[in-house]
Amino acid sequence: MGIKWDEFFITGDPLILGSQIAIVLTMLGIVAGLTYLKRWKWLWREWLTTVDHKRIGIMYIISAVLMFFRGGMDGLLMKAQTSRPEMEFLTAQHYNEIFTTHGVIMILFMAMPFLIGLMNVVIPLQIGARDVAFPQLNALSFWLFFSGAMLFNVSFVIGGSPDAGWTSYFPLAGKEFSPGIGNNYYAVALQIAGIGTLLSGINFVVTILKMRTKGMTLMRMPMFSWTTLVTSIIIVAAFPIFTVALGLMTFDRLYGTHFFTLSGGGLDMLWANLFWLWGHPEVYIVALPAFGIFSEVIATFSRKSLFGYKSMVVSIVGIALLSMLVWVHHFYTMGAGAAVNSVFSITTMLIAVPTGVKMFNWLFTMRHGRIRTTTAMLWALAFVPCFVIGGVTGVMLAMGAADYQYHNTLFLVAHFHYVLIPGVVFAVFAGLYYWWPKMFGFLLNERLGKWHFWLFVIGFNVTFMPMFFLGLKGAVRRSYTFSVESGFSNLFLVSALGSVILAAGFAVFCYNIYWSLRHADRNITGDPWHARTLEWATASPVQPYNFAKLPVVDKLDAFWHMKKSDSPELTLQQTEIEEIHMPNNSGLPFVMGIIFGIAGFLLVFEWHLAAAVAAIGIFACLIVRSFDYNDGYHIHKAEVEQTEQAWRLREGEVNRYVG
Amino acid sequence: MNILGFWIFLGAEIVLFATLFGVYGVLYERYAGGPTHQDIIMIREVMIQTMLLLTSSFTCGVAIHEMRRGSLKGLLTWLVITLLLGAGFLYMEINEFMHYVHEGATMQTSAFLSSFFVLLGTHGLHVTFGILWAIMVIIQLLQRGLTPVTARKTFIIGLYWHFLDVVWIFIFTFVYLKGMVS
């Protein structure tokens, strides 16, 4: 219990003081707003206890957008600090903390939840199911992610941020060199969120293997479902490694073991190996679903089936296998020797092959297509050239010998931003503009969307293109400042200006959500994009039970062919309406998330006894769950009929009435 | 569906233990001047632990067999025997650990001992959790008898128990036997 109370809150930095005040005011504002609008019960019933995959998906996406804001602020602070040589805006320590949280938050608390959110909303609809395999587990996944994210986010005001980089390499991240509690936050918060992700992975594997609608064989699944299946398998295969690595880190930091320490026989590079054994597959965990989103968007807005469906599937599986075999390329300079580095150089370059196949498939999908340049499609179009730059520089980095020059420079930083921003961020924006009407029943404004798109894409290129050249000139990453004599000043300034444009793009995006929420046309059909897959065969926003009758599928892009042939599948007969079984809401996942958060917080501060007491609460919840035989409820025929009539009789859906 | 989900969970558990074995494989000769395998291992006690756990896996199989025959009484009897054997294993393992610590071989002594204790401790925690979980299932069997739901739950805890046994076989081989000859 050796915590010094005077160090509990971080004090003395005006930036952090400002954040603390802002956090307190926001919290007060939320509480006051909910009380004033009498929305507490609504919040609890409709959202906190929900097990509906669509609502869980929306909560994931909201959290991801908030985390995008936090991570983006970190990025802007870094860019401000390096905009001029010898700037004294942030101290070295503060800069270390900020690049650490920026990395962790953007990868684990923005990219992943954003994609998992879209998966949650779309996958059951796309495979023609009424929910995921384990709805309550799904809610638990979300609340574990959420409590992990919140725990990580309080670090900078309570106790101190982690500051050893998002990779937290040892020995720096060990107790010896980072004696504060900042890195405990890293170990514990990521562990909690990671368990949630693992459970999500299991859930989606079972959902996709077991709950596809009649006739939907694996090879008739939409590409986003395929990528989600393969991603979920990678999650199951890779996340336990991270669980172990973080566990061992916790032991080293809290209980004085010698896994990664310099003394006592520990091996610091063991951490780097374990981290990247998870970390590299993690790159594909975020990239593959993004590829799936682009596949859907490009096929829909080119009005063609996806070109080379089978080769797409093969290349996804190939990428998944290769993703497990390349981890050493993150530390060629460890000195494993020429033979080892050569093997990993080759496996790394091999990944370019299936990725290239996918690129050509997308291009050929567009060829001869009747392309509509909606905002979603624009993101996909911009993705192709930007991502190719990221990919080609990736092959440059893959060459072990050359990497000795690029290692630890801004060239690398520019490379992975060119992979992750077009590959993931463009994808989630494309997906959000594309599936937004499915979630909320109105479109995001296309005009504002295009402003968002152009500002963001231009800002992105202006920010990160100069960093390639800075890196080649020798500017090292994670350095909080540089001298005038280095000659880096101009490129750094351009990069900083680019980040302002990037931020303006994000601001337009937020304004777009606000504007559309207030003013967008609510009178849209279930299929506003003339799309191809089953999620568009039902209402927008989707009714709680998804489908009144589960669609039957006989080929790829089934919904498209149903529309063309005016299939009877699209019409609902009165006799086909049945009672629908639904799972009950449950407060347990939310409560477990909170207890995990509290136990984690106590563990971060090394209050072991209190943490153990809190952990008993987790077991109590598990026992309650084990004895819960509540079997859900049924939606009655009349209610289903009413709901179905309400959307099917609307204009534009005339031939899909309840007959 | 639940059973498939559990198999996939076991897949994740295999990765988890494989990682711990990998870590142990990297660190197992890094004694840092502390005790070595030969200095501490009590192979006779470990042998008895192994027999207890292997037998418990057998009795667990008998329990599931009894469940398939529809005999609740047989199921409960063999399940309780399984848990008693598991508890015996756990008791001996805790004693073994206390003995090591008493000898001055703690988790903080060397990288070898860190990986040793964490690998074995993770397995031991799994056994503890399995026993508590099985007790919950037994209570439900007593309350509700054999229903499709309780039968499924029993089958899943059976899978879990066998899995722990398989892990122990690897621990016994790669940690204890290999340690004796290295």
Explain the overall architecture.
The complex is a heterodimer of chains A (659) and B (182). With 659 residues, chain A is an all-alpha fold. Chain A folds into two domains: 1-38; 52-522, Cytochrome c oxidase-like, subunit I domain (Cytochrome C Oxidase, Chain A, Up-down Bundle). In chain A, 66% of the residues lie in helices and 1% in strands. Chain A is built from 20 helices and two strands. Chain A has helices at residues 14-36, 40-48, 53-81, 92-126, 135-154, 182-210, 223-255, 268-302, 309-323, 338-350, 352-366, 375-398, 400-406, 410-440, 446-473, 489-519, 558-565, 588-604, 608-626, 637-648; strands at residues 580-582, 633-635. In chain A, strands 1-2 form a two-stranded antiparallel ribbon. Chain A is globular. The model of chain A has no long low-confidence stretch (mean pLDDT 93). Chain B is mostly helical and 182 residues long. Chain B has one domain: Four Helix Bundle (Hemerythrin (Met), subunit A). Chain B is 85% helix and 0% strand. Chain B is built from six helices and no strands. Chain B has helices spanning 2-27, 37-40, 43-68, 72-102, 111-144, 148-181. In chain B, helix 1 packs parallel to helix 6 (148-181), helix 3 packs antiparallel against helix 4 and helix 5 (111-144) packs antiparallel against helix 6. The chains are: A mainly alpha (659), B mainly alpha (182). Chains A and B meet through helix 6, helix 7, helix 8 and helix 19 of A and helix 1 and helix 5 of B.
